[in-house]
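Exercise: predict the structure of this protein bound to D-ribose.
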Amino acid sequence: MEKEKIVIGSDHAGYRLKEVIKKYLNETGYDYEDIGMYDEEASDYPQIAHKLAKLVSTSQYKRGILICGTGVGMCICANKTKGIRAVVCSDTTSAKFSRAHNDTNVLCLGQRIIGEYTAKEICKVWLETEFEARRHSKRVLMIEP
Ligand code: RB5
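Solution:
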C-alpha cells in the first residue's frame, strides 16, 4: 500500500533534525514535501508553522511534521489554525496516544530537546498509530470552541 505524503518544515533551530527526519521518511517509504527553511540562517518559526498548518487544514496533506528548537513555538502557532491538532512530543507514549485518542495531525519536535534516535522513534510511532475513533471521536469534535 502506498504511504501518505508528509509535509515537513522547520526553522533554523530545527533544520538539522529535519534533515535527519527526511532521510528517515525516505528510508521508510514515506514521500514528503519540505516547505523550508533550507539552512541554519536565523528565521521566524511562526512563518513555517502557519504555512504548514494551512496546507494540512486545507487537506493538501493529511499530516505534517514541524521542528524548531523546542517544538513549543511551532506547536503554539500550528494550533491557531482551525482543524489543526498539533502536539509537541519528547516521548513515544505521548506520540502514540496523541494519535490514538486525539487524532493529532501535526507532530512538533525540538532539536534542542531530544536526540536523533528518539526523534525517529517518535516519528515512527506517530506515523504508524491510527486514530481509535469510537468514544474519542465525539471528544475530538468538541475540541474546536
Ligand atoms: C529559536 O531560537 C527558537 O526560539 C525556536 O526554534 C523555538 O524553539 C521556539 O519555540
